[in-house]
Design a protein that fits this description.
With 306 residues, this protein is an alpha+beta fold. It contains 13 helices and ten strands.
Amino acid sequence: MDILQDHLARTRASGGVFARSVVQPPWGLRLPGTIQLSLHTVVQGRAWIWLDDPRAAMEVVPGDLCLIRGGPEHHVAHTPDPAACQPHEEFLRRHPSDERSDDRAATVFLCGAYRFAGDVGRSLIDALPPTLLLHAAAHDPLHDVIGFLSRELGAPAAGHQTVLDRLLDVLLVMAMRAAYDQSPTAPRWYRAGGDPRLGPALHAIHAQAEHPWTVPELASLSGMSRPAFARNFERSLGQAPMQYLTDWRMTLARDHLRGEELTLDQIARRTGYTSPNAFAAAFRRHHGVPPGHWRQEELSSDPSRR
């Protein structure tokens, strides 16, 4: 059980946009903070990326990958100058696509955007730093994926969109893995999942949330005594095992409720409760309202469903 893969699958993570730009200075692009996760890389030349303070701009050179978490606007430009940055629509009008340009003085850069659904998706995004610059050495697989993306965008052929979607998926997983490895804000489950003492129990919880797990059973999976397991689990995850299990079940329940595809009885069974009443009681203890009421409020507040 790969917990990161499980989270990405549950969030229905999907690439929204990936574009290749070939531009001559002066140029600059301003992107909205509504993009949940942006990915930027330079194929030729160099670019500067920053949020609200150009003095903190990061220089991006070929092979680098920059991740930007949603929130404030961010800027990509030939120099750290906010005055040079235009909204996306104006940027496209002023810099029409010239994907086959062979001008060595031009800057060639790629911009991607990713969307994540539900609370599982939000937890992945929230665990990332606001900005992260990854440097890929020539032998790094990340470097190879970036080069492949650039070639595909520059010379599209049959099946072009499918290739881009798959490459963006690969880039996303490699980037998030590198980000979590480097970041002190990485999710606790990411680090604990690789711990041979806790990994088996943690993987079991995520793989089978519907199973009626007990602390002795989870301790047995990890090859520890019950007290030692409980102590190590709480130290690493910040919660007792049963509280972690309940929180994970409630996270899954919220995402199922938003989806509308499952009945309350089906959600109860998928999240480890013996009946809709038992599920409703647990949900109400956790959220203060019954699941049906929570679902109605959530759906009515979502403008995309109107």
